[in-house]
Write a structure and sequence with these properties.
Blueprint: E1 2-11, E2 16-24, E3 29-37, H1 42-50, E4 59-63, E5 66-72, E6 79-86, E7 92-99, H2 101-113, E8 120-125
Antiparallel strand pairs: 1-2, 1-8, 2-3, 4-5, 5-6, 6-7
Helix pairs in contact: 1-2
Amino acid sequence: MKIIIRSLRFDPDDKLVLYEVVAENKYFKGTVEFYEYSDAFDEFSKQLEKFPFESSQPVIYSADGFNLNVSLASPTGHINVKVVIKDDTGDKVSFTDTADTNSLHRLANQLEAVDFTVEQTIEWTDVLN
C-alpha cells in the first residue's frame, strides 16, 4: 500500500489547503482533491502514534471524498488500513490492506513534521505490502 499526500495550494485568508491524496495497492489506485485546514492531519497523527499500544480504538481520518481507517483486525495485533476515495461523480475506490505498527508510526511522524501551508509531499509505503 502506498499513500501520497500533497499540499497543492494554501489560501492564507481562509487558512485552507488544497490537498491531493493518491492511494494505491496492487489492484487499485485512486486520487482525490479536497480543501481542509492546514492542521487537518494533526489529531489523526497524534492518535496514530498511540495506536495500538496506548489505545486500540480505530483511528479515522475523514475528509470530503477521502476516508482512512486504521483498526485492529485481530487480538494478535494484525492491523488493517482501509482506504476509501470517492470522486465528484460518485465513483469509488475502496481497499483494505494490512500494515505494520512501526510503519504507521512513521506515517504519523511524517504528518507531524510537514508544513502543509507550503507545497509539500509526503509518501508513505507500508513494508507489508
